[in-house]
Amino acid sequence: MVEKKNSYSLELVGILYKNLGIILLYLLWFFTDGSGVGFFFILFLTIMMLLRWRFEKLKWTLLIDQAACIAISFFWYEGIYGLGLIAFDTILLKFPVAILPALIYALYNFNDYFLLIVIAQSLFVGTALLGWKLETEKAVYQRDEDSKKRYELESMKDDLLVANVQVVRMAEISERARIAREIHDNAGHEIIAAYMSLQVVEGMLDDPKQCKEMFSESMKRLESGIEKIRESVHNLAPLTTVGVQYLQKLCDEFTLCPINIEVHGDTSKVPIYLWSILEPCLKEALTNIVRHSDAKNVHVALDVTPYIVRLSVENDGVKGDIKAPGIGLRNLKQRAAAVGGNISADTSKGFRLICVLPIE
């Protein structure tokens, strides 16, 4: 916004300088000549400057303007001071070499000190405005680059969040496949073998001795299969507490005030990647309660439906207004958005945080 304002100010100063030059030329014409030649010459300069302002590619016309100034000086000498406006344009249009004819003429008429002063002043003002313009353009370019990089970082962050969810889902699918494979390769073989042995036993009921041996073999295979199932279940058990048990643990370890936690619905339907959002949400809510509230009671509710899971954390007191969400809450909102959910916080009556996530 500041750069845009500077750009308008720069253009305004340039227009004012040119208008002042045109006005001074008309005053010179009025007091020194008054003929139609000077009037139409100044009108010609004005039109040419407007054309160059509208079409920057016409900067080569600066040479035509200088030729016109030098030519008009033979009929109305004061018209030569129009070279000051042309010198100003050569700098702003980044075509300084075009001022050479005017400089050569001014040096040739060295006795006209005022002409040298006018050209030097225009070159100085033009250079100052050009420097201002270049600095403004540089600031605008830097701002655009920063915005572009910030957008790319935000986009990359969103992509990473989505990729993280996909990785968790793929890990869950891979784990299911591993469980099925382990049960099939280990316990499944033993149970099938025991089943086949029992079928053989059924046909050997007339021979008690062989029947007893086959039955014992079948029992051993069943025991082996059961043991392998137990081992698989033990190996599949997580090393750390996850899910609703972890939420309960966080509430139990909270010492500021009592927490009442309610759970409704089948929590087994909540995918593991959603727990990775729900758990830090509860942590963030409890952290905000410690920092910003004089809570006497905290209520935590987890509601699971066939389509969504909703976590609500609220307390009965706030120390002061929370003007803006912290980094932790902003990051959680982005993570929730990556899975199609949302997180909202309210401090109108105590502190309340609500997280709603879809169950796919």
UniProtKB/TrEMBL annotation:
Is the keyword Nucleotide-binding in the record? yes
Domain Signal transduction histidine kinase subgroup 3 dimerisation and phosphoacceptor, by residue range, is 175-238
Q: Does the keyword Kinase apply?
A: yes
Key words, A-Z: ATP-binding, Kinase, Membrane, Nucleotide-binding, Phosphoprotein, Transferase, Transmembrane, Transmembrane helix, Two-component regulatory system
Q: Which reaction does it catalyse?
A: ATP + protein L-histidine = ADP + protein N-phospho-L-histidine
Cellular component (GO) terms are:
membrane
The EC number on file is 2.7.13.3
Membrane-crossing segments per the record: 12-31, 37-53, 60-77, 83-106, 113-132
Entries under InterPro entries matching the protein = HATPase_C_sf (IPR036890), Sensor_HK_TwoCompSys (IPR050482), Sig_transdc_His_kin_sub3_dim/P (IPR011712)
> Which CDD domains does the record match to this protein?
HATPase_UhpB-NarQ-NarX-like (cd16917)
- Broadest EC class assigned to this enzyme: transferase
This entry's Gene Ontology molecular function terms read: ATP binding; phosphorelay sensor kinase activity; protein dimerization activity
| Protein name stated in the entry | histidine kinase
Taxonomic lineage of the native organism: Bacteria, Bacillati, Bacillota, Clostridia, Eubacteriales
